[in-house]
Amino acid sequence: MAGHTNLSRIAKVDNAAIAAAREGRYVTDAKLEALRQFAAKVTRQRGVVSQADVAALKAAGYDNQSVLDVRVLAATKLISNYTNHLAETPKGAEWTAPGKLKPLPDGGRDRPAFRWGGRGVVSGEGDQR
Q: Which of 16, 50, 113, 115 is 20 to 30 Å from 65 by CA-CA measure?
């Protein structure tokens, strides 16, 4: 959740709202609460939400683009989680905002190849990094 918290802070979301969302509690800002509830349903119900769920989000001031944004972000997070499980990324690893990453001293040329099932997924000359 560290990444979500950092993104929320970048978006200037109130610390109390961030804490409530992290703990699964009610967020006092009605618009953010509607978003929290919708995002939770998208996640728990694997993307299947009702028209009533969409209508509730829109009634809080969101639009069709917001509905799509939540679903795209949920799908992106799913892919990220699956990749992190495969790569065995340590839990709680510090997240760095895009654009604030420090370049590797060697430009990334000497980084170890990612291995999966004994075969190099990313390895060798001319690989697509």
A: 16
